[in-house]
Amino acid sequence: GNSVTQMEGPVTLSEEAFLTINCTYTATGYPSLFWYVQYPGEGLQLLLKATKADDKGSNKGFEATYRKETTSFHLEKGSVQVSDSAVYFCALSHAGTGNQFYFGTGTSLTVIP
Amino acid sequence: DAGVTQSPTHLIKTRGQQVTLRCSPKSGHDTVSWYQQALGQGPQFIFQYYEEEERQRGNFPDRFSGHQFPNYSSELNVNALLLGDSALYLCASSLLGDDPYEQYFGPGTRLTVT
């Protein structure tokens, strides 16, 4: 089957700290991988994506590399800001599932000044 | 260019009642998917509509039904509401033939069942 496992939160970091949020997946075939971010009271926004092995998605200082050998797509940022406080969701989809998205349970990040 | 819009923003219903949620997709998109996000959880796929037909369905009971209109907008209907139906309902739109495939999410409708 298809599933996504994220590291459990909540995560609390000081401003300018390094961030890693782990994500591993199980999928049949070759999925596309995504990170979405959800700010308080809002819907999901696409943060970055990668569509094949060894692709690196990046946006707003966040990066994630599609690692087929470890079935992982860990999210990283070198220096977090207070404005990065949100819930982060890892997700996968591929044509074999009719492009249905499978989400992890989310990781809450709080950045303190 | 308007993104995905949903209405209403919030809704309070009583157990046993019925509810209809609405979604307008991003301009140019032809596919609408609905997700249920319980508190503290990731979104769970309910179903997807394309060309006014239900194309895929997740593991949700028949109390959950939907519709897509010729202008690609969509409705989610839930009958015989249960307390456990309280959640954020998210609509996502996409273009079926897009490669790579992406979904754009609306802000959601917060449903509270009392």
What's the β-strand tally of chain A?
Answer: 12
Structural class of chain A: mainly beta
Q: Strand percentage of chain A, roughly?
A: over 45%
Give the assembly state of these chains: heterodimer
Q: Uncertain segments of chain A of ≥5 residues (pLDDT<50)? A: none
Low-confidence stretches of chain B: none
What series of H and E elements makes up the topology of chain A?
EEEEEEEEEEEE
The helicity of chain B comes to under 10%
Largest sheet composition of chain B: 7 strands, mixed
Please report the number of helical segments of chain A.
0
Overall pLDDT of chain B: 93
- Annotation field: number of helices of chain B: 0
Query: Helices and strands of chain B: which structural class?
Result: mainly beta
Q: Tell me the span between the first and last alpha carbons of chain A.
A: 41 Å
Please tell me what the overall shape of chain A is: globular
Question: What is the CA–CA distance across the termini of chain B?
Answer: 37 Å
- Give the SSE order of chain B as H and E letters: EEEEEEEEEEE
Dominant shape of chain B: globular
Cα-based radius of gyration of chain B, to the nearest Å: 13 Å
Mind telling me the C-alpha Rg of chain A?
14 Å
The description of the largest β-sheet of chain A is: 6 strands, mixed
Characterization of the model:
- The complex is a heterodimer of chains A (113) and B (114).
- With 113 residues, chain A is an all-beta fold.
- Chain A starts with a strand and ends with a strand.
- Chain A has strands at 3-6, 11-14, 19-21, 23-26, 32-38, 44-50, 56-59, 62-65, 75-77, 86-93, 102-103, 107-112.
- In chain A, a hairpin with a 5-residue loop joins strand 5 and strand 6 (44-50).
- In chain A, strands 2, 5, 6, 10, 11 and 12 form a 6-stranded mixed beta sheet that branches.
- Chain A is built from no helices and 12 strands.
- Chain B is an all-beta fold.
- Helix content of chain B is 0%, strand content 50%.
- Chain B contains no helices and 11 strands.
- In chain B, strands 2, 4, 5, 6, 9, 10 and 11 form a 7-stranded mixed beta sheet that branches. In chain B, strands 1-3-8-7 form a 4-stranded antiparallel beta sheet, with no helix packed on it.
- The model of chain B has no long low-confidence stretch (mean pLDDT 93).
- Classes of the chains: A mainly beta (113), B mainly beta (114).
- Chains A and B meet through strand 5, strand 6, strand 10 and strand 11 of A and strand 5, strand 9 and strand 10 of B.
